[in-house]
Write a structure and sequence with these properties.
Shape: elongated
Strand order of the largest sheet: 5-4-3-6-7-9-8
Strand content: 15-25%
CATH class of the largest domain: Alpha Beta
Radius of gyration: 20 Å
Number of strands: 9
Number of helices: 10
Structural class: alpha/beta
CATH superfamily of the largest domain: Vaccinia Virus protein VP39
Number of domains: 2
CATH topology of the largest domain: Rossmann fold
Largest sheet: 7 strands, mixed
Order of helices and strands: HHHHHEEHEHEHEEHEHEE
CATH architecture of the largest domain: 3-Layer(aba) Sandwich
Length: 281
């Protein structure tokens, strides 16, 4: 095998991934090579003339082929950065997005950091929101729920990895079905893609669990169940935050207002109306 430099290897990989339809071919090639070599993307840029050893080139080629076939980068390398945490992910969980970090940041400012609040994370998936909030609120009691036992297993493993398993209770529950008590803060990144739009999603997104994507005919099937359960599980003064897709937050805000909540719609970093937040009056 001819040994190639970091720069040459990345150039070849970028061209291949672009041909394969990868959304960000250079960045994805860098993620894979950095993972294989055990270095940062910054290192790759600084030492572009370094030769890549044969064993690492072979492994890089193997991972590159997987991504060319549409497998998401996060599943290939096994983790996704989220709020300064490297969240373990598998094909059983949704890959955490930067937009969901924004939801975590909003929730982390909803109360004083030392507040002994009760928190509920519905549709927890990898547990990313629950884990981030456990680090932000050291005195909080957090419940993380998901209908998928495989997703909960991944979330539990993440909690153990970050030494947060004592602060988070994991419950297998179809939304509120097996949830007890009332909560000061409720967050959720529920399935919200309308069923008819699933087929048109990017090829990498379609590799993620359908259970975490499909929100029913209009995308709000699970959201409505969440709203219905608020009367039973929202404590006085409860704050609610949900991530949705474009066009949904305003509609959900009206539903929240009708329930007697004070609702607001927030845009994400891309200027898209992405979140609905609410305060129980």
């Amino acid at each position: 095998m001819n040994l190639l430099s970091v720069r040459a290897l990345l150039q070849q990989a970028q061209a291949r991934l672009q041909q394969a339809g990868s959304e960000d071919p250079l960045a994805n090639a860098q993620f894979l090579l950095a993972h294989v070599m055990g270095v940062s993307r910054t290192w790759l840029e600084a030492f572009g003339e370094e030769e890549v050893p044969a064993a690492q080139q072979s492994l890089f080629e193997e991972l590159l082929q997987r991504h060319e076939k549409g497998e998401p980068i996060a599943y290939i390398i096994g983790f996704q950065p989220f709020c300064s945490l490297d969240i373990r992910v598998t094909p059983d969980v949704l890959i955490p997005r930067p937009e969901t970090e924004e939801l975590a940041q909003w929730a982390g400012q909803a109360f004083e950091p030392q507040a002994a609040i009760s928190v509920l994370d519905l549709c927890t998936g990898s547990g990313c929101l629950a884990l981030a909030l456990a680090q932000m609120y050291k005195n909080a009691r957090i419940t993380a729920a998901d209908v998928s036992p495989k997703a909960l297993q991944v979330a539990r493993e993440n909690a153990r990895a970050f030494l947060l398993e004592k602060q988070i209770q994991f419950v297998q529950s179809n939304v509120f079905e097996k949830i007890e008590g009332r909560f000061d803060l409720i967050v959720s990144n529920p399935p919200y893609i309308p069923s008819g739009e699933i087929a048109s999603l990017a090829r990498e997104v379609k590799q993620e669990p359908l259970l975490a994507l499909d929100g029913g005919e209009d995308g709000l099937k699970i959201v409505r169940v969440i709203l219905e359960g608020l009367s039973t599980h929202a404590a006085p003064g409860c704050k609610l935050g949900m991530e949705l897709c474009a066009g949904q937050p305003a509609q959900v805000a009206l539903l929240l207002n009708a329930l007697g909540w004070k609702a607001d719609v927030k845009k994400d970093i891309f200027g898209i109306e992405r979140f609905v937040t609410g305060y129980k009056i």
